[in-house]
Amino acid sequence: MQDRAGAEPGLRGQGKNEGRIGLLNGFAAYGMWGLVPLFWPLLKPAGSVEILAHRMVWSLAFVGVALLFVRRWGWAKELLRRPKRLGLVAVAAAVITVNWGVYIWSVNSGHVVEASLGYFINPLVSIALGVLLLKERLRPAQWAAVGTGFAAVLVLAVGYGQPPWISLVLAFSFGTYGLVKKKVNLSGLESLAAETAVQFLPALAYLLWLGAQGRSTFGAEGAGHGVLLASAGLITAVPLVCFGAAAIRVPLSTLGLLQYLAPVFQFLLGIWYFHEAMPPERWAGFALVWLALILLTWDALRTARVNRARLARAEAEADAATEAARPAPTSAPADEVRPITGA
Questions:
Q1: Single pTM value for the model
Q2: What is the pLDDT of residues 298-314, one digit of tens each?
Q3: Which of 267, 216, 264 is CA-nearest to residue 112?
Q4: What's the pLDDT score for residue 3?
Q5: Residue 123, class by beta-carbon neighbours within 10 Å (0-12 exposed, 13-18 middle, 19+ buried)?
Q6: Is it true that the peptide bond before 41 is cis, omega within 30 degrees of 0?
Q7: Which of 20, 58, 116, 307 gets the most CB atoms within 10 Å of its CB?
Q8: 269: closest CA among 124, 119, 44, 50?
Q9: Is the dihedral of CA 167, 168, 171, 176 positive or negative?
Q10: CA atoms lying within 13 Å on the CB side of residue 68
Q11: Alpha carbons 208 and 290: distance in angstroms, whole number
């Protein structure tokens, strides 16, 4: 039996369940990314570069285990046969190394709020990169959002006494990373495996050198500290797996809204947990950024609604045209109709 929409009730329920699972995974991914500032200070007295190197090494280990579990290796052979694509993976690895390193340093140096700003303005940076590098055309609301974001950076530069370089480095590095990943076109797990494979040897070499110098904290600060350093790979891999599960189950517009959870959590942690200062000029700058994001979100939702309505109208017109082109059923001529007689 089918419901009014023509879909079987069991399949429709299954679709709702898939959407619910996707939403929960999305909340989990962005929630973990938003709460990760609580983790990096636990790794002290390790320095930011040592933490970064452990993150690279252990990320590859955990992702390798995950790939063994799901048995997906065909992409690696394909990647090795395409040098240009492999070069883009190397660029992505370099850019995300900068992003990870600056983020770890900023959190452990008391700049959580400024780091959160980087991820607030990242959507604006992504739009700007699309215009500059991909020659994309913006709608008026998008131009307004980018302009408002630029004004926010100027206000914050006055407030900080210098440009908010931590925010800008994080935003532009992550925006560039997203741009390169779009060209590479690998799913989250495979992409992280390829990137950490590029990072692995330099990171391992640095850790070995650090140990030879007697400056490594791994093993020197007790077993608990060693486990925490190793778990940096888990902290990297698990949110990405959750994000991958969400990306295939929920609409892109929903993911676009969920992405703001991470910087919101980081911002709140910076103020309430790490007690970072927020003078009036910083509030003014953040308010402008939030206004830009509201404009951007409103425009994205409005455009998605218009596109859905246009698609539905086109499908209805196509169905009507198909129905009109279908030949009408013919009945037998009257002279061929014979009366039914008894035996």
A1: 0.81
A2: 887 788 788 778 888 88
A3: 267
A4: 46
A5: buried
A6: no
A7: 116
A8: 119
A9: negative
A10: 6
A11: 44
Which pair of structure tokens corresponds to residue 9?
């009730």
What span, in angstroms and rounded, lies between the C-alpha atoms of 223 and 207?
A: 17
Cα separation, 285 vs 191, whole angstroms:
35
88 neighbors 184 (Cβ within 8 angstroms):
yes
Four-point Cα dihedral 230, 232, 234, 239, nearest 10: 180
The tokens describing 304, both together, are 């998605």
Q: pLDDT for 22-62, tens place per residue?
A: 889 889 989 999 999 999 999 999 999 999 999 999 999 98
Residue with tokens 């390798």: 64
- Alpha-carbon Rg of the chain, whole angstroms? 27
Fill in the amino acid letter for 318: A
pLDDT at residue 343 in the model: 43
Half-sphere exposure for 184 (CA within 13 Å, toward CB): 27
Q: At what angle do helices 140-160 and 122-134 cross, to 10 degrees?
A: 120
The per-residue DSSP string of 144-201 comes to HHHHHHHHHHHHHHHHHTS--HHHHHHHHHHHHHHHHHHHH---HHHHHHHHHHHHHH
- Give the model's confidence band at 330: pLDDT under 50 very low, under 70 low, under 90 confident, else very high: low
Placement of tokens 């009507």 in the chain: 320
Q: What does pLDDT average to over the chain?
A: 83
Phi and psi angles of residue 193, each rounded to the nearest 5 degrees, phi first = -60, -45
Place of tokens 């990306």: 247
CA 108, 109, 115, 116: dihedral to nearest 10 degrees?
70
- What is the amino acid identity at position 170? L
Angstrom distances, CA of residue 115 to CA of 2, 128, 258, 341: 51, 20, 18, 93
Report pLDDT for 323: 73
Looking at 213-279, list the stretches that DSSP marks H as alpha helix, in order from N- to C-terminal side: 223-247, 252-258, 261-268
Which amino acid is it at 340? Answer: I
